[in-house]
Write a structure and sequence with these properties.
By secondary structure, this protein is of the alpha+beta class. It has helices at about 50-65, 110-125; strands spanning about 1-5, 10, 20, 30-40, 40-45, 70-75, 80-85, 90-95, 100-105, 130-135, 140-145.
């Protein structure tokens, strides 16, 4: 399945396995998300099923690391929610099949907000939403649980 960027409509893929092909937009790697609470915040792990998607995610993460990280949830092509993870420091690390982004804060209240974002994003995806992780407002990867 293909995906438009922020709040666009879904469409069919353009023939490249493992990559979501939004019409008129850049190719966005398709992955599986795992979001978990960690001490002081949350961790997002994006895992891709093929080499091309993995390489694309890792290249985008390497280029965009250090900026603001956000996750938007979409249902039927409409954005239903977005978490800007600006209340903590986000660290990006490469994994064998994608990347992981750990967002943490030493401030108790900010760590609580990050944990709340983790709960929110997990709930949205369990209800059928697709999540799009962005760095510096650039889509890095999209997918489901």
């Amino acid at each position: 399945m293909g995906m438009m960027g922020m709040g666009g409509a879904t469409g069919m893929g353009q023939g490249m396995p493992g990559v979501m092909a939004p019409p008129g937009m850049m190719m966005v790697p398709k992955c599986t998300f795992k979001m978990e609470k960690v001490t002081g915040g949350m961790k997002i792990t994006c895992s891709c099923s093929d080499t091309m998607a993995t390489t694309t995610v890792q290249s985008l993460c390497s280029m965009l690391a250090g900026g603001m990280c956000s996750c938007c949830c979409m249902m039927n092509g409409m954005m239903v929610g977005c978490c800007n993870l600006c209340m903590g420091m986000c660290k990006c690390e490469m994994t064998k099949d994608g990347c992981s982004v750990t967002c943490t804060s030493g401030d108790k209240e900010c760590a609580g907000m990050l944990a709340g974002c983790c709960d929110y994003l997990n709930t949205m995806m369990k209800c059928g939403c697709t999540c799009c992780m962005m760095m510096n407002q650039m889509p890095v990867c999209c997918g489901t649980m």
